[in-house]
Amino acid sequence: MAAVAGRQASEAKFTTADFLRPAIDAAAAAAETNSTVSFSSLGTANFADFDFANGTRYPEQATASVGPATYKPGATVAHVPITLDRPTPNTIIARVMTEDGTGLVRGVAGVNYQPIYKSVIFRPGDPLTKTVEVPIILGIPQADFIVRFVEAPWGGKLGTDRAYVQCDFQKEPTPTQTEGRAPRIFTPSGTLQWRMSRDTLKWSDAGHDKAWSTKLPNGRSQPGNQETGIYLDGWLYRDAGIEPPLRYTDEGLVMHTQKLKQPLEWNGVFYNYGSVVLSGHNSKPLQIGYGQYEFTAKMPDRRGSWPAFWLISTAGWPPEIDIYEGFGFESWWDFDRYTANTLHGGANINRTFQQGIFMNTDEVYGIGGFTKGFHSFAVDIQPDYITWFIDGKETYQAVNPFAGFRWYPIMDVAVKTNGDYRDGSGDMLVKDIKIYSN
């Protein structure tokens, strides 16, 4: 989200390089075995010495380009290179597609080539060039076609966005390029520190070691985010005619949002909607430095709802790590197919960088239906990289600019709408939370 004090998220105490050196020797073995340690030889070498300036700086994004490709007559496949201009500090997903050529003689889909719509994934430490395969039906000279990006690469910058694929007798065919590592599988490496159950999940106004707080450290509203909902507490507002914002059922914790029958006031502003939040800022058992958070939930689908599970530094905002975020106030957002992961860097309530990705996880990874059933969203925070997972499969990774920080979790469903707010469900149903500390 963007943290407390505007969902915006502190000052790191060490640089990443201070923590990396002892683990470099184990890097290759860890990558090969899908260990929870996410080092890769190229990624470690490229960013171990980067000056993150106490969590206020981030390496420059890589630029992705489509390169020209050549194949010989009689070939059944053409290999088209997708290239980065530098090692990437985070996962880049480039969606590519084919397009007919131009001119009197041109390659035509279904005649000369089989059209494609694919994703090319670069993870930190991967080779800088990967190829995408295009099946060839009838390769003849001058029947050129185009491979292009669908849009700017997710997680990277846009370079050359298209290139021709040519059939040529005389030129050597473009070779296939080595693929990078396989996605990691989520396996907690830390010790289980806290797990959600009827007995362990408690909440109160301020929160304490045995209870989450029903408000953010800065209060019950986020006007800096243009939110229109007030974060409710069923006990504090028991005489206001509200529906219970929190209740534990056999399926798990229901985090309920609503349109209020009567506006409620906070800090001189009246709110027409009820949001809901649980924050661990006063709950030390929920806080870790390095380790893993795993959150299992079913998402709302109501327009104007803004569900999230995120982490804030115990020293203040920024930094922030968004494990899951759903932008239901955007008309284009599809709760069943899209997810978002973001890092917010900076210090003293001043964000200096924002690095993340909006992703169609259904298209890229075959993972979707987030409003129709329970899915797990996890993050592994290590000195070198932060890695995100959905249903146990790695979906994103970014170099960790926040070495030495400690974190507390927040889960909420904000409201950002002025509409009727009655379509579908505005509730997030949380089935499980596990917190592991390394």
TrEMBL record:
It comes from the Bacteria. Transmembrane segments: none annotated. Gene3D superfamilies: 2.60.120.200. Pfam families: Glyco_hydro_16. Residues 167-438 form the GH16 domain. Belongs to the glycosyl hydrolase 16 family. This is Family 16 glycosylhydrolase. It comes from Sphingobium tyrosinilyticum.
